[in-house]
Automatic annotation (TrEMBL):
<keyword id="KW-0808">Transferase</keyword>
<protein>
    <recommendedName>
        <fullName>Methyltransferase type 11 domain-containing protein</fullName>
    </recommendedName>
</protein>
<comment type="similarity">
    <text>Belongs to the methyltransferase superfamily.</text>
</comment>
<dbReference type="InterPro" id="IPR013216">
    <property type="entry name" value="Methyltransf_11"/>
</dbReference>
<feature type="domain" description="Methyltransferase type 11">
    <location>
        <begin position="52"/>
        <end position="144"/>
    </location>
</feature>
<dbReference type="InterPro" id="IPR051052">
    <property type="entry name" value="Diverse_substrate_MTase"/>
</dbReference>
<dbReference type="Pfam" id="PF08241">
    <property type="entry name" value="Methyltransf_11"/>
</dbReference>
<dbReference type="InterPro" id="IPR029063">
    <property type="entry name" value="SAM-dependent_MTases_sf"/>
</dbReference>
<keyword id="KW-0489">Methyltransferase</keyword>
Amino acid sequence: MTDDKPSKKVADQYDRGYDYTTYWDDRDYEHAAEEAAIRRLLEGRTFARAADVGGGFGRLCLLLRQYADHVTLAEPSRTQLEAAEEVLAGTDIEKVQTQADDLAFEDASLDLITMVRVMHHIPEPSKEFAELARVLRPGGTALIEVANYGHYKNRRQFKKQGKALPTEPVSIRTVSADEPDAIAFVNHNVDTVVGQLAGAGLVLQRKLSVSNLRSQTLKKVLPTGLMVGIEKALQERLASKDFGPSIFLELRRS
């Protein structure tokens, strides 16, 4: 189990001088891979009301608007929402400051929820999953991305050592936390997360393996367009093996 779980969850953990928009500089492949996964999972479907939970500065909201009549960016960070003002300018996408474990939505009021690159920061997600289930209507869809500790490299390493993969989240923090409530950085066991989601009433329908070519070496030698083309061909094929560092889960509210 990770040892850097925050003492409490606070909305300003990304309001401490960090510009998340710059994180996406030179990450065109990762962004395109995630958009490709969402398109694949939502292809041919339309929704009335959708929310991107923990959606940062609205990076994926414009894509969601292609599938939903009304989209809300549900983000805890004030500075992220300020950045979203520019990204989402001229659109009808709503912006709400709210935490994933205490969402500012009525019961069963949403038809679609996405939560991408958020589990990376939640060592124990039971409250968040309960909230997602509460605000999602019965039969509604949730797309949840999981930072996958059991990706191919780790799975091969553990097998070589004759060890089983951890079932608990694993801290991957590379530097010491600068404050007692500093945001967590963890990777998860996908099977454990699927079980936790089922316990909250969110039942797995499909999954995709995403960012399968995430490698600085490959980025230096392969054009982004080629990497994205290969990525699209691999997302379904590698899903059953939980190959990639990012697993997208499509879930239905029971």
